[in-house]
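R.M. (postdoc): so does anyone remember the format we settled on? I'll just put the structure tokens first.
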């Protein structure tokens, strides 16, 4: 059971959250190499006759999105905030995503953008800056290693996921290593540091909202499974100011769960955030599974913007990363 009151996040573990379909089928190792985790951004890029922004499709390997954005800005000589992108992609992965560079009246040779940390695959002029969340989703190709189960068990689990979806948890990436972002939230809350000016606190505000949402979602799953009810899509809170439009059942769960987190809720409200809702269930599309060799499974699927691939994977396998040693 996840933590039910603010406190020691050193023992943070996303795997303590309840599952839809019981325990994972077996253990598996993932992220053995960046090539085991491929991500393609889904963004409808229309043809254009021009515009102040140059959009570039970038392929990066084992690189941070924000780091690449900074490199692009430096290469063309513009401020960092003149570079836009739709979302932060996994670092230890091979990803393709679009960046926008604000270059009004300025044409550049794409050779200027050559850098060992990434490749520019395509470029097109557009009349707007890319903003967070404007892409429709992401396509994934993920390889699991040392995953040994019966094919019939795998197919049954895949069919369940396709029909009923999976919990739409925020993944552990949102909370930092061992939940360190949550520790920082608690420090800010204790010192009233989340109030007022949000500058520089976005990461922690997002972590706080995501944690509270995950707790409500976890309790919603427990109540649904305990009552043997079918999983009926609903939504949970991304906390902030404003009246909740939750259904009566979810409203009761929110009151029950968040009663121990009133200082966090209060801090989020006074940070100026408006309450939003997020679906409890996510539904992957085009989900396929293929054995590459015995014990090595390739999963391919697409998720809408804001959904985490690891939240789907955890319903199939108990994941661990390979032990890496440095020489």
């Amino acid at each position: 059971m996840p933590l039910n009151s603010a406190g020691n996040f050193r023992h943070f573990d996303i795997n303590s959250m309840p599952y839809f379909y019981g325990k994972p089928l077996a253990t598996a190792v993932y992220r053995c190499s960046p090539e085991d985790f491929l991500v393609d951004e889904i963004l409808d890029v229309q043809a254009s006759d021009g515009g102040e922004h140059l959009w570039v499709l970038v392929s990066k390997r084992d690189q941070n999105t924000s780091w690449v954005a900074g490199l692009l800005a430096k290469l063309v000589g513009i401020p960092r905030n003149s570079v836009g992108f739709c979302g932060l992609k996994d670092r230890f992965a091979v990803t393709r995503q679009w960046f926008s560079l604000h270059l009004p009246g300025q044409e550049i040779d794409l050779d200027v953008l050559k850098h060992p940390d990434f490749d520019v695959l395509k470029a097109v002029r557009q009349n707007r800056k890319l903003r967070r969340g404007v892409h429709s989703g992401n396509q994934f190709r993920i390889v699991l290693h040392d995953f040994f189960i019966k094919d019939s068990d795998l197919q049954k689990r895949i069919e369940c996921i396709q029909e009923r979806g999976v919990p739409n948890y925020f993944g552990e990436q949102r909370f930092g290593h061992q939940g360190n972002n949550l520790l920082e939230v608690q420090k800010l809350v204790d010192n009233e540091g989340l109030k007022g000016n949000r500058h520089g606190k976005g990461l922690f505000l997002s972590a706080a909202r995501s944690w509270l949402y995950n707790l409500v979602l976890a309790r919603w799953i427990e109540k649904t499974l305990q009552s043997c009810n079918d999983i009926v899509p609903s939504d949970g809170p991304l906390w902030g100011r404003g009246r909740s439009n939750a259904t009566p059942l979810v409203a009761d769960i929110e009151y029950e769960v968040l009663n121990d987190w009133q200082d966090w809720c209060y801090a989020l409200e006074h940070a100026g955030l408006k309450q939003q809702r997020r679906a409890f269930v996510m539904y992957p599309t085009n989900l396929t599974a293929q054995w590459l060799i015995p014990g090595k499974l390739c999963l391919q699927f697409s998720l809408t913007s804001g959904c985490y691939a690891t939240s789907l994977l955890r319903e199939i396998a108990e994941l661990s990363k390979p032990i890496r040693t440095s020489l």
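R.M.: ...and that's the designed sequence above, right after the tokens. Also worth knowing: The longest helix spans residues 202-226. The helical segments are 65-76, 151-164, 180-190, 202-226, 248-258, 262-270, 309-313.
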